[in-house]
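TA notes, week 10

Several of you asked for a full example with nothing omitted. So below is the full record: structure tokens for the whole chain, then the designed sequence directly under it. When grading your own attempts, check the secondary structure regions first.
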């Protein structure tokens, strides 16, 4: 089946955070939204059909996942990521961020140090801070083209701050790196050496380009698997964020028990039945749809790259290896952070994610969401090009 990702489906007046809440988010009306990480594509037909069948049944009582649900998880990760996981080590939560915050509370004490690698997804810093822990940053190194890990600083920060927990973003949001197996092994060895538990946010794992391959952190070794929690969800892959379903794999039985105990303390028990239905259908029947989507997104990346090179050489695409959220370098425009924000909003009429929300090292950068029909991306690039001409 050929899927049509060019179709533009209006999202205004649908309670869409991306489209309907500019005023509430302090933005003027009329901006083209290319920010928050959900897609402008309908979820696969098989998922919609499964949800419609459940809705037609009309009873939405307390529900639990069954054997077929766990088989769908096992088959997906085995086929897509070569990870032979025991699906019954999965704990279902309303989301990955929810799970990360819960793990922070059950594995650390107030005031403990938690390590992150900025520029990185801003909810990491917020979750650590809001739970009364200390944020420690291992800054990623930008060589002008790509980002790399400063391993000496990584280990030094762990030792100097007595770090208890490391929140890994893999693939990395926003810089787009798909960490190599060697990079992951080196981080894993350092964490094992110093008793640092790893929470691996792998929510973008299904979006990998250019022949790269995502390596599940827990697949590195049995020791590593027992020293980490792998946080996954179908939400990014199949555009299901509002159904609140995530699968958190915790091989370590003691940690899994502590995690479940913390969930009990929060009053969380049964999952959203529609989230369970959608997840199972997506993992059972969504592979072909995803394969076509990745090709479409790669073409969107090509359009962005070529447009910058040809018409806006002052703006640099940091070549994404994964995710649908390219990281773009505007530093050659010579604008400070407030000036760049005004340029994006007032002149380009775009709503992007400003780089500094991901950490101070994000100054001069913006994050684009290109999981949109090509006509929308072309419009965004045209608006940006016109804005650049005004200041050139």
């Amino acid at each position: 089946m050929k899927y049509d990702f060019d179709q533009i489906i209006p999202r205004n007046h649908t309670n869409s955070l991306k489209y309907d809440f500019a005023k509430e988010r302090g933005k003027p009306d009329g901006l083209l939204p290319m920010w928050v990480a959900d897609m402008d594509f309908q979820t696969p037909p098989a998922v919609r059909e499964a949800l419609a069948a459940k809705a037609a049944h009309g009873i939405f009582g307390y529900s639990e996942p069954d054997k077929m649900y766990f088989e769908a998880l096992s088959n997906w990760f085995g086929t897509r990521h070569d990870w032979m996981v025991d699906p019954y080590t999965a704990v279902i939560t309303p989301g990955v961020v929810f799970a990360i915050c819960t793990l922070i509370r059950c594995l650390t004490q107030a005031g403990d140090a938690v390590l992150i690698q900025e520029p990185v997804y801003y909810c990491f810093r917020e979750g650590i801070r809001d739970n009364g822990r200390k944020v420690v940053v291992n800054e990623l190194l930008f060589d002008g083209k790509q980002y790399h890990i400063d391993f000496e600083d990584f280990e030094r920060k762990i030792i100097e701050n007595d770090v208890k927990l490391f929140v890994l973003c893999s693939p990395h949001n926003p810089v787009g790196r798909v960490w190599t197996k060697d990079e992951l092994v080196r981080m894993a060895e350092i964490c094992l050496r110093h008793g640092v538990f790893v929470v691996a946010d792998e929510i973008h794992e299904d979006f990998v380009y250019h022949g790269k391959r995502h390596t599940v952190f827990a697949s590195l070794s049995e020791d590593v698997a027992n020293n980490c929690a792998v946080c996954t969800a179908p939400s990014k892959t199949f555009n299901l964020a509002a159904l609140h379903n995530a699968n958190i794999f915790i091989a370590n039985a003691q940690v899994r028990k502590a995690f479940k105990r913390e969930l009990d303390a929060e009053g969380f028990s049964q999952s959203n039945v529609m989230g369970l239905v959608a997840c199972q259908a997506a993992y059972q029947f969504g592979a072909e749809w995803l394969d076509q989507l990745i090709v479409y997104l790669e073409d969107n990346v090509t359009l962005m790259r070529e447009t910058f090179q040809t018409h806006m050489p002052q703006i640099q695409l940091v070549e994404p290896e994964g995710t649908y959220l390219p990281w773009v370098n505007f530093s050659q425009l010579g604008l400070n952070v407030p000036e760049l924000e005004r340029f994006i909003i007032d002149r380009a009429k775009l709503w992007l994610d400003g780089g500094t929300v991901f950490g101070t090292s994000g100054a001069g950068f913006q994050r684009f969401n290109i999981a949109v029909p090509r006509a929308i991306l072309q419009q965004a690039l045209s608006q940006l090009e016109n804005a650049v001409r005004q200041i050139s």
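The chain has two domains: 17-43+288-391, 47-286. Use that as a sanity check on your answer.
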